[in-house]
Structures are given as C-alpha cells and as structure tokens.
Write a structure and sequence with these properties.
This protein has about 260 residues and is of the alpha/beta class. It contains twelve helices and eight strands. It starts with a strand and ends with a helix.
Length: about 260
C-alpha cells in the first residue's frame, strides 16, 4: 500500500500489482480496491497481460482517509483525486478504467481533460452521468439510518456489507454530495477510445449503448448479470483485457501523433 495527497491534502491510498503499462482501475461506491480487484483476482489477471495495475481506494473508502466534515467533500472531489493520483504516478501514457461510481468518475475525468490512451466506463449508462441529482437516495437512507433496519431486510443486508468491508457511514454519505452532472457536449468532445460495459440486467444498461454512441471513439458491450454481478463474470475481465490489448485500435495518443 502506498499513500499520496489529494489536491486538498487529504491522505489517500493505492496499491499496485504487476509491471508494464499503467492502468488505473477505480472501484465502485462502498467498495475497496482489495475487495473489488485483488481478492477477486481481476487485477492479477490484467497484470498478467503486461500491466502495472494501480488500485486506489476512493476518498472515504478502504485505507484512504475518511473525514466526516463537509469541507473535505467539495463537488467533483473524486475527479480531483484522480488527477492527483495521475500526477503522483508521474505518467503521461496510461489507461484508465472504473466500475459503477468508478466508471462515472472515469467519464468525468475524460470530460475534464484526462488523456489516457484508452478508457473503460463500466457499470454506468449515459443518464446517470448526465443527471446526478437524486442519485444514491436509497444508499443515503441506509447510511443515515445505520443500525435501525430489521434483520432479513434488503437495507440490513447492505448495512451488513458496509460494516463487513470496514465502511464508515458518516464518511460515505458525504461522498454522495460530491456528484456533478457531466455535460453532453463535454462527452461528445472526448477523443479517447472508450469501452462501455454493462450487465444485461443492470438498470444502467438502458442508456449504456447511447453513451457508447455519444463518445466519438466509443464502443459498447453487453455482459451477463446485473449491476452487482456483471463485474465478477469472466466476460467482464475478458472484455476489458481484450479492449486494452487490441493492437488494431488506434489510441488517442497515437492519433495525436
């Protein structure tokens, strides 16, 4: 585990697996890098294809700092943290991928000018990227009423998951206040080759093909499963690795000459 400072000085954590070309891989909300990518073996399989896989814990997650004060969660802070990590790594030629909240963060990084060679936006559709207001309402309800849900309820199951993963409800709920809308025009201006991945039974799948079409070098792939299971399928890892290693795909960096 290594540590670096966000643009506001907040201490954040990341891990690395493998060596070679850098891939920054972002997990989803309430997930840690360890649970999402290491324990599942996904990071190791990607590393086996010649990648240095960089696995950050998002702010308020895992081994990153979990402040409770609102000042530590300004709008779009996860994207600011992403740029801080890129600066920390000192890389100009790298790839970028994320799932769920990580996928939304990748899309916003691209919209704000990040220039990876290739990008993967997984577990997200266009609607959730364009319009963030009101997103995460069920999670907000759970995080602000921790300890009140009856055994056997869906809310208690999520609460138990957050507790087991070491989540801090008071910090996690602050993350929900950092979301910003990504303008359609900004996405339409992204020149980075981008793969959009969603499960067939994921609600985001309804507008994921539209996201792939809006991005000038976007492509879309449907996976089996829903929002929670698609990331764990062999098809997810195969699609991600296949896209990153596709030698016939001209990257944005190569396109710039």
């Amino acid at each position: 585990m290594r540590r670096f400072g966000g643009r506001d000085g907040t201490e954040l954590a990341y891990r690395e697996v493998g060596s070679g070309r850098t891939l920054i891989l972002l997990p989803g909300f309430t997930m840690t890098a360890r649970a999402a990518w290491l324990e599942t073996g996904i990071a190791g399989r990607i590393a086996g294809h010649g990648y240095r896989v960089v696995l950050p814990d998002l702010r308020a997650h895992g081994d990153s700092a979990k402040p409770h004060d609102a000042a530590s969660y300004p709008l779009d802070v996860l994207v600011d943290d992403g740029f801080a990590l890129i600066d920390e790594l000192g890389v100009s030629d790298y790839d970028l991928a994320g799932y769920s909240l990580g996928g939304r963060t990748v899309a916003q990084l691209l919209a704000r000018g990040a220039t990876p060679g290739r990008a993967v936006v997984a577990g997200q559709g266009l609607e959730a990227i364009l319009h963030t207001e009101g997103r995460g309402g069920r999670l907000r309800h759970i995080l602000t009423n921790f300890g009140t849900f009856p055994a056997g309820s869906p809310e208690r199951a999520m609460e138990d998951w957050i507790t087991a993963s070491g989540g801090d409800p008071a910090a996690l709920v602050r993350v929900l206040d950092t979301f910003v809308d990504t303008p359609r025009a900004a996405l339409a201006a992204v020149t980075v080759p981008t793969l959009v991945l969603t499960g067939a039974e994921d609600g985001h799948n309804e507008t994921a093909p539209e996201l792939g079409s809006l991005l000038p070098q976007g492509r879309y792939r449907e996976l089996p499963g829903d929002h929670f299971t698609a990331v764990g399928t062999p098809e997810f890892t195969a699609a991600l690795i296949g896209f990153l290693t596709d030698k016939e795909l001209v990257t944005s960096r190569e396109g710039r000459g």
